[in-house]
């Protein structure tokens, strides 16, 4: 009986479910993994990079992470095309706020705009929900460093550490046991992020080619967004005791 509700975004099933939203969540659960951690001196993003072909030119390509403004960035899991639409919308909203008020947009206010758009796509006919989840990280003068997770339904919440994508439940179990609330600095966050990604990827020797890292920290009182290069990631893996194995030529 539930099948006739599958094609209707706005119609609830007799059990009170919106199947299109649940299908969007299913798409996210099969996407590449991403994790974010809030530290006392910054906020860290880490993600799996799924390279589909050795012929792909990946120079400078950030597959899962996007800078929205100087003080805010996101990691995504789900359909990349959907993510691009929301990222462009968020960038435009951030710049409009900066133009109007001559200051950076507060993180939660930006997230609220994104989630309003997401929710609208679950409410009107002829549309489908965005098949993407966001980990939004940033800093503002009101609440300092912040981390939020948003869902296709438009729901969002603040987190100390969060994971999205494939094997996110395994990541949550590691974060619950190893993340120290109020006692995690950026160095500890990097080590824990490597451990969590290794768990999500089910490997003891993660490769620098298949990982992405970025962070937002304060320098001279201003937020700075940094994307780790390949050498930075190799050093991070070595410091975490998970050096990648060299393949035989």
Automatic annotation (TrEMBL):
Family annotation (PROSITE patterns): PROTEASOME_ALPHA_1 (PS00388), PROTEASOME_ALPHA_2 (PS51475), PROTEASOME_BETA_1 (PS00854)
Domain named Proteasome alpha-type subunits: residues: 5-27
GO biological process: ubiquitin-dependent protein catabolic process
Entry-linked SMART domains: Proteasome_A_N (SM00948)
One Pfam match: Proteasome_A_N
Signal peptide as annotated in the record: none
Keywords: Cytoplasm, Nucleus, Proteasome
Family, per entry: Belongs to the peptidase T1A family.
Protein name from the UniProt record: Proteasome subunit alpha type
């Amino acid at each position: 009986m539930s099948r006739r509700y599958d094609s209707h975004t706005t119609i609830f099933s007799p059990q009170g479910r919106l199947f299109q939203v649940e299908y969007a969540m299913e798409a996210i659960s099969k996407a590449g993994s991403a994790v974010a951690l809030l530290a006392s001196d910054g906020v860290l993003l880490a993600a799996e990079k799924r390279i589909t072909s050795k012929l792909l030119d990946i120079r400078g390509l950030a597959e899962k992470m996007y800078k929205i403004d100087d003080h805010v960035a996101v990691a995504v899991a789900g359909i990349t095309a959907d993510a691009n639409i929301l990222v462009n919308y968020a960038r435009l909203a951030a710049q409009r706020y900066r133009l109007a008020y001559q200051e950076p947009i507060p993180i939660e206010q930006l997230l609220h705009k994104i989630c309003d758009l997401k929710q609208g796509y679950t409410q009107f006919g002829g549309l489908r929900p965005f098949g993407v989840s966001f980990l939004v990280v940033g800093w503002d003068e009101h609440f300092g460093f912040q981390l939020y997770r948003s869902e296709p339904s438009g729901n969002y919440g603040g987190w100390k550490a969060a994971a999205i994508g494939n094997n996110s439940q395994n990541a949550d179990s590691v974060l619950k046991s190893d993340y120290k609330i109020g006692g995690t600095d950026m160095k500890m966050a990097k080590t824990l992020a490597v451990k969590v990604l290794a768990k999500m990827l089910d490997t003891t020797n993660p490769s620098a080619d298949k990982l992405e890292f970025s962070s937002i920290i304060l320098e001279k009182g201003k937020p700075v967004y940094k994307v780790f290069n390949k050498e930075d990631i190799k050093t991070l893996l070595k410091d975490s005791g998970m050096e990648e194995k060299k393949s035989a030529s």
